[in-house]
Every structure is written in structure tokens, then in C-alpha cells.
Amino acid sequence: MARAILYADVPAFYAEVERAVRPELAGRPVIVGGDPRKRGLVQAATPDAVAAGVREGMAVVDALAQCPRARAVRTEMSRYREMDKRLRACLARACERLEPAGLGAAFLEAGEAGPTERLPTLAGLARALREAVAAELGLPLRVGSGPVKFVARLAAEEAGGAGFLAVAPGEVAAFLGPLPVSRLPGVGPNTAARLAELGASTVAQLVALGRGPIESALGNHGLVVLATALGQGDDRLRPGSHPQTLSQEVTLREGGLDRAQLGEQLRLLAERLERALALEGLAAKRLLLKVRYADGARITRSVSLELGVATAQELVDRASELLERTQAGSRPLRLLGLAVSSLARPRRDDRQLPLFRV
């Protein structure tokens, strides 16, 4: 008997969500990002836009020059979070054990199957997932399976037009071998460059180097990378009973300076967070304020909360205190955001008010 992990995601999630909810975008390349008039950056692009040369992180105005047929859409995080909830609910109907892996993605546990029936069973499950997501949400889903998480994720990325690729335990070496080392978890540009100096540009070449040269060049980190290249990784699912963080943000088009207007924006963000917390039945014990100034500089301010908070007024009160620790009001702002974390369902004693306020 063998157990497989599935990884399911919607590539270019933000862009595909926009195309799904806005009929006028059907059949057109879509670019999601900031305001092109203010050198906003691309956050996501549909495959047809990518094929035309659009890349995440490039300026939206440059992306539109690269792909004139594309439609540029401003980022709407609340829309993507709501669609992610619907996506997880859709996937959970077929696989009870689900671990979120970011917006538009999740690891799933497929259960057990005999060796001879494993692939047909997984292929059938993947097909059912893809059909359900397409019918209910209008989104394209790709699915990969493997004995460990990162192999399942890479399998999904390599699925191509079929939309599904399964990698059995005995196939891991052959699957990973031709891939660039940069595709392995933990291999960033610096590590990839060091491995290239050793003659290892592919995973197979990395494995062929052996333990000694890799440990000598990269120390313990190199040994971790080698273990990954050999197909060793996390095979445990950690189902999330609820989100670990919730956040809201707003772009200030006029470079906000007015403190009253900033206070109103904080209230709107707090009200959205209150609704999100209520939907999940959660309270937060940590609050973070995010600010981006007009010149692009970013700062954050945070506070731990002794008692879990869940109402807009409580969030506004604490967020206003954090805003006082910034240059808001004297330095133009372009973005204001609030995030809550350390989320938990309130206990009975969390609802008791402190006797004294200091």
C-alpha cells in the first residue's frame, strides 16, 4: 500500500481570478499589478501574457508594451482571498485532509491505494478536482502527486497541458535528474551559482558530486540540498483548521497626507478584517500596520495584544497607536495595510474585560 501527496494550484491565480469573474476579459491576456501611470509592478499574468514576454516584477507599463493586447487590472486582494476560500472548500469535498500552501494552492492527501491501481486512482481524483474547480469557479487547476511535498509541487509545475502528473516513489530520481538545481527548495541564486562553479547545473549533476564536495563548498546547507536532490522531504500534511493570518490593504492614489482621511482608511480596513475574523470565528493577538511611502520606502509597526481582539473598533484603536509611530501626516503615503496574526478561537476567559486600563 502506498500513500501519495497531491499538490493542486491555479497558476497565475490573481490573473485567472480576474478573468473568471469579469466576462469582458475572456480570451484576453490579463496582467494584474499596480497603476501603470505610477510605475506599478506586475504581480501576476495569464499564460498568454507570459508567452508574449510579460514577467512578474516588471513594470506594468513595460508589460503592456510587451503585450499590447493585454488588459491591465489593479490588484484586489479581498477578491483573491475570497476566491481562495471557495477553492479550498471545493478541494476539501474530495480530500478531507488539506494543507493550504498560499493563495490558490494546497497540498492534499489522496489516501492509500495498491501499487497496480495507484496511478489510475490518482488520475481520476485529479480529473475530478480539475473538473469541479472549472465548473464551480471557472479556474484552471493543475495537479501533481509525489511521495513528498516538494516533488508533488514540481510535478504540478511540470504537468503541462495534461494538467496532471504523478511521480511514483521509484520515479523520483528520473524525474528530478534533468531539472535545474534552482528548482529545488532552498536553492537560491547564490547557492545555484556556487553549485554551477562545482559543475552542477542539474539535479543529476548535483547528486553525482557526492557528499564530500558539496559539504566542503556549502557546509550543512549543502547537505540539506543534497538530501532534497535525492528526493528526501516532508511527507506530512498539516491540515490548517483556520487561516494563520488575515490582512487588508489599500492604495492611496493621491499620496495620503490628511490624518483624518488616513484614519477613515484605517477604519475601512479594520471593518473588513472584522468581517473576515467573524467569518472564521477568530480573534487576533497580534496586529501589524504596513505603510509604503510615496518614494517607495516601506515600514511596518506591530503590537502584541494580551486579549484577543475581533472588533473593528478595537483594531482601529490599536492601529491608530501604531500609525503614530510612523511619519504619516508629514510624509506622503501610497499604501496602508493592516494584518492580524496569532489567530485563535476565543476562549471563555478571553471575553472578560480587564478591570483597569492603564
How far is it from the N-terminal to the C-terminal residue, by CA? 61 Å
Reading off the top of the CATH hierarchy, the class of the largest domain is best stated as Alpha Beta
Provide the low-confidence segments as ranges.
Answer: 113-120, 348-358
CATH homologous superfamily classification of the largest domain: Reverse transcriptase/Diguanylate cyclase domain
The CATH topology of the largest domain is: Alpha-Beta Plaits
Order of helices and strands: EHEEHHEHEEHEHEHHHHEHEEHE
The residue fraction in helices comes out at 25-40%
Shape: globular
Per CATH, the architecture of the largest domain is: 2-Layer Sandwich
Q: Which strand order does the major sheet show? A: 5-6-1-7-8
Main pleated sheet:
5 strands, mixed
What does this structure look like?
This protein has 358 residues and is an alpha+beta fold. It has three domains: 1-147, Reverse transcriptase/Diguanylate cyclase domain (Alpha-Beta Plaits), CATH 3.30.70.270; 177-229, 5' to 3' exonuclease, C-terminal subdomain (DNA polymerase, domain 1, Orthogonal Bundle); 245-351, Dna Ligase, domain 1 (2-Layer Sandwich). Helix content is 39%, strand content 24%. The protein is built from twelve helices and twelve strands. The chain has helices at 13-21, 47-51, 60-66, 77-92, 118-137, 149-157, 172-176, 189-197, 203-209, 211-229, 259-280, 312-323, and strands at 2-9, 30-33, 42-45, 71-74, 98-100, 105-113, 142-146, 164-166, 245-256, 283-293, 298-309, 333-344. The strands form three sheets. The protein has a five-stranded mixed sheet with strand order 5-6-1-7-8, with helices on both faces. Strands 9-12-10-11 form a four-stranded antiparallel sheet, covered by helices on one side. It is globular. The protein starts with a strand and ends in a 14-residue tail after the last strand. Mean pLDDT is 87; it is low at 113-120 and 348-358.
